[in-house]
Every structure is written in structure tokens, then in C-alpha cells.
Amino acid sequence: MKHARTRDIDDLYATINRLESLDECRKFFRDLLTETEIRELAERWKVARMLWQGVPYTTIEEETGLSSRTIARVHKWLKQGKGGYLMMLRRMNYPKE
């Protein structure tokens, strides 16, 4: 598979940015992604929320079934990523530990 060009990636982001409702998001993402991919994204977002709230790794592992390696990766992105997780956690008013 060829790597997507930056222009194509930006076009995808621009398309997502134009979605106007939760229903539109469900429809678009279901056509774009497999059910498994959607669940994987949802699980990462759940891990980010749990880490934000100070939940220990062991509890996150038990509740999600994800490996400590995956949890650590999300934790790294939460602390040292581009700020996307933090931006959305704050925007969605999730309580912090």
C-alpha cells in the first residue's frame, strides 16, 4: 500500500471537520472504518479519559482488557503528544483526578 500524501490526509481531516452531528459521524466513520477499528479508537479514547482521571494502569487493564503496553503508549501521547488528547479532554469537560 502506498503511503497517503499529506494533501490526502489533510483532505480527510477537512472532511471530518465538516461533519455536523453525531449521526453523521456514526455514518461516515462506519463507512470509513471497520467495526474493529472503531472499537480500537474508542478504547484508546477511554484509556485517555481514565488516565486523565488518575485511574491506575492495573484497573485500566482489568476494565478494558488492553495491554499495559497499549496503555503506556496512550499515556505517552497524553503527556508528550501534540496536545490533542488534552485539548479534547478539556473541551469535553471530563473531570481530572
Report on this model:
The chain is built from 6 helices and no strands. The protein has about 100 residues and is mostly helical. The chain has 2 domains: about 30 residues, no CATH class; about 60 residues, TrpR-like (Trp Operon Repressor, Chain A), CATH 1.10.1270.10.
CATH class of the largest domain: Mainly Alpha
What's the number of domains?
A: 2
Overall pLDDT, averaged?
95
Separate helix tally:
6
Q: Unreliable stretches, pLDDT < 50, 5 or more residues?
A: none
Q: Per DSSP, what share of the residues sits in E-state strands of 2 or more residues? A: under 5%
The counted number of beta strands is 0
Order of helices and strands: HHHHHH
What's the quaternary structure here?
single chain
CA-CA gap between termini? 42 Å
**Radius of gyration from the alpha-carbon trace, in angstroms:** 15 Å
Main pleated sheet: none
CATH superfamily of the largest domain: TrpR-like
Give the second-level CATH assignment, the architecture of the largest domain: Orthogonal Bundle
Main structural class: mainly alpha
- For this structure, the CATH topology of the largest domain is Trp Operon Repressor, Chain A
Can you give the helix content as a percent range? over 70%
Shape descriptor: globular
